[in-house]
TrEMBL record:
<dbReference type="InterPro" id="IPR011856">
    <property type="entry name" value="tRNA_endonuc-like_dom_sf"/>
</dbReference>
<dbReference type="Pfam" id="PF02021">
    <property type="entry name" value="UPF0102"/>
</dbReference>
<dbReference type="InterPro" id="IPR003509">
    <property type="entry name" value="UPF0102_YraN-like"/>
</dbReference>
<dbReference type="InterPro" id="IPR011335">
    <property type="entry name" value="Restrct_endonuc-II-like"/>
</dbReference>
<protein>
    <recommendedName>
        <fullName>UPF0102 protein Cop2CBH44_30220</fullName>
    </recommendedName>
</protein>
<comment type="similarity">
    <text>Belongs to the UPF0102 family.</text>
</comment>
<dbReference type="GO" id="GO:0003676">
    <property type="term" value="F:nucleic acid binding"/>
</dbReference>
């Protein structure tokens, strides 16, 4: 496995452990359906939380969460739609980001709740 893939997997493990400590229930890690992938699916109270995890070794090129652009957001929204249709869960949905910077023997973690909202207009759905 490539070094950046190992870093990403470690970041997802750190994020899942962090979320559990914060009272979240983890439903899935690395959920996949066709071309869709969600790093972590969790629940917290009345929310189904779709979590994108971004892990970096430093912030020299910007913060990890800065790598989430509009295209990635649209892809996550479509993935969440696929997950909801597949599981038919009765939750409100929220999109969070867990940003991790791994240092030699430690890490910095930032949890951004409600990091973005699905747009009202969507080309995919014709409105």
């Amino acid at each position: 496995m490539a070094k950046h893939n190992i870093l990403g997997k470690n970041g997802e493990k750190i994020a899942a452990e962090y979320l559990v400590k914060q009272g979240y229930d983890i439903r899935d890690i690395n959920w996949r359906n066709g071309r869709y992938e969600i790093d972590i699916v969790a629940t917290q109270g009345k929310y189904l939380v779709i979590v994108e995890v971004k892990t970096r070794q430093s912030d020299i090129f910007g913060l990890p969460e800065d790598a989430i652009n509009d295209k990635k957001i649209r892809h996550l929204i479509d993935a969440a739609d696929s997950y909801i249709k597949q599981t038919d869960l009765p939750f409100d949905i929220r999109f969070d980001i867990v940003s991790i910077i791994c240092k030699e023997n430690s890490y910095e973690i930032e949890h951004i709740q409600d990091a973005f909202y699905p747009p009202i207009q969507s080309k995919k759905y014709g409105y």
